[in-house]
Amino acid sequence: MNTYDQLYIDGGEKAVQFPSPHYVWPLVSEECIQEVHDYLVERKPLSISDVSGVVEELEELIKDYFSSNYVLTTNSGSNALHASYIALDLPVGSEIIVPVSTFHASITPAIHCGLTPILVDVEEDNGNISPAGLIDAITPNTSCVVVTHLWGHPAEMKEIVDICKQKNIKLIEDCSHAFGSTYQGMKVGTFGDISVFSMQASKTVPAGEGGFLITKHRKYYERACLVGHYRGRSITDVTDPFLKQFAETGYGLKYRIHPLAAVIAKHEFAALADKIKHRDKYVNLLNEAIAKSKGIIAPSVRSHVTMGGHFGYKPTFVENQLFRKGKAITCDEYIEILGNEGVEIHRPSVKPLTHMEIFSKDYVGLEFAKDTWRPILRGPFVGCDKYYKNLLSLPPFISPTSKEIVESYAKAIIKVSNNLSNLEGE
Ligand SMILES: Cc1ncc(COP(=O)(O)O)c(C=O)c1O
């Protein structure tokens, strides 16, 4: 027993009594296992180069969901992003504006295309790219803006789309965290010239490894096909006479989704609405507990958006509201205290890009990057620093069986608040 336990123990019991880990994802239901099993037993193809079989079925589901004209599944979100940068045919050496808080793969494929990422500040309440920061960063050399809907909270798409239209700049949405999130009633993914989703195992629609892009524009789709879907699909789907010449080889890369991953993704996509329903229920439960508690505030969700799948649950620690022996506790102490109550809580695992070597060092000594890799940091990143300073991360509970665990988390948050909020001056 440590000092924190002794301070606010009631009856010597931790609030959360469930064995770890509390969150297991992907769940991989019996039905899903059966579908993969049947696929193998029926000796269905394990490589699909055209648009047929389970790849076609998955892409039809995605098309319907987004009312999108074109869908291209890939073997990862990173590679869907790579295909998108090439599909937009952005001039080598041009600048792409990106939020400083995103996953590195939102922009590393762009660097491999000879584009220069300009990292700009984000909004302090949700970590998304700030339209004001975006406008400031635009130069005559700007070719594209990349928006990530961080942890599932949509960025300010109306302003961003208007800016891109006015300035004739292309827009990519990285929706990897935001399956089913909406902005002013419209699904994210429907605003960009091209939008990308990762279906890596931790995402709301997991394939194990996988991803896809969607677009309304035939020419972007055809160019994206050529990047990593040579022969079959490029031969049937690339119609532009100039591009068609390359259909046999494409551009030499291979980004097709594995059919077994497509089987899993199809199953998981069909369950998306149900997952979001459970997710919302659990988020409400935690939000209600937090509303009754000191030292923590719920993630801010703007009134004109909805959160879809969420990627983690990210409340914020509030300083100077909880005390131990008369002294205000820090964010790290709060994490430790809730951890002692059995809550699986930590700082977010994805840090702002400024914390990563790849974006903060120069590339002297790396021959492949010489003279081409030049991400530019357009700091200061005041919004980002404020957003991340006391950000917490709890599991993104989503399965129908997590209700009791989530209730015990709510209990733990209230318990810590009750025990530590009135010790000031002791
Ligand atoms: C915002 C974002 N973009 C892109 C990716 C890359 O996706 P993948 O891991 O499928 O390549 C991720 C993965 O976590 C992500 O979080």
UniProtKB/TrEMBL annotation:
Source organism: Paenibacillus roseus
Keyword hit for Nuclease: no
Key words, A-Z: Aminotransferase, Pyridoxal phosphate, Transferase
SUPFAM superfamilies (UniProt xref): PLP-dependent transferases
GO BP term (any one): polysaccharide biosynthetic process
Domain of life, per lineage: Bacteria
Family: Belongs to the DegT/DnrJ/EryC1 family.
Protein name, as recorded: Aminotransferase class V-fold PLP-dependent enzyme
Annotated GO MF terms: pyridoxal phosphate binding; transaminase activity
Short name of any one Pfam family annotated for the protein: DegT_DnrJ_EryC1
